[in-house]
Amino acid sequence: MSDTGNHVAAAGDTGRATHGEPVPGRSSRRRLTVVSGPSGVGKSSVVSELRRLDPDIYFSVSVTTRAPRPGEVDGAHYHFIDRAMFDRMVAAGELLEHAEFAGNCYGTPRGPVERALAEGRQAVLEIELQGARQVRAAMPEARLVMLMPPSWEELVGRLTGRGTEEEAAVKARLAEAERELAAAGEFDVRVVNADVRTAAGQLLDLMNTDFESIREHHE
Ligand SMILES: Nc1ncnc2c1ncn2[C@@H]1O[C@H](COP(=O)(O)OP(=O)(O)OP(=O)(O)O)[C@@H](O)[C@H]1O
Ligand SMILES: Nc1nc2c(ncn2[C@@H]2O[C@H](COP(=O)(O)O)[C@@H](O)[C@H]2O)c(=O)[nH]1
Question: 129 C-alpha to center of ligand 1: Å?
């Protein structure tokens, strides 16, 4: 797997682990945003618009055991790896979080995210619910955003309309979607994706807001 991260420029709140890697401190972890939400809600679409709006943000590239879809590029959309490699990365502590979702494994490579945060950049993870919960436990300062569909019918329409999964996989993803939507209250903020550009703009505004004040406001 290639390393997609940039190299280290130590920040004031950065500690150092035993292997010389930077460890993000509390204030840099506030620059970490998790974008979650049910499969098909439009996370990739919104995140890609966010990338256009602010090219300085670091967008994590996950590892996955899922087969590439037509048009997906290794190292850009995902690092496509086999199960043995995935298990090795988990065992070596190389993943910030990881989960099995609808029959495939996914995880966030730790190093590139930690380096981006240490460099003072905002970082975004586009991940499912179990991973979001792991990030919350490991980095409580991170902001957790759930992207919501305008309605259940619209979600089903988007997922089936995308045409990337067989019927059984769509069913499995919709079963996960019910669980994910039931957990919406665990997130700091919920953003409805009725329109990609509007949702991306709202996400960017949230990322540029002092999040502690939002959290207090919502508690
Ligand atoms: N606001 C929107 N209005 C209409 N269609 C949308 C909107 N946002 C995304 N879509 C469409 O919905 C489908 C699913 O979007 P996308 O692949 O971005 O979802 P996702 O949440 O990243 O899915 P997954 O978690 O399965 O990877 C795509 O065909 C996309 O073009
Ligand atoms: N916990 C994690 N979830 C991830 C990661 N990368 C992607 N995902 C989520 O998995 C599902 C399915 O993705 P798909 O590309 O197969 O449609 C979706 O919710 C993604 O956001 C990750 O590193 N960790």
Answer: 17
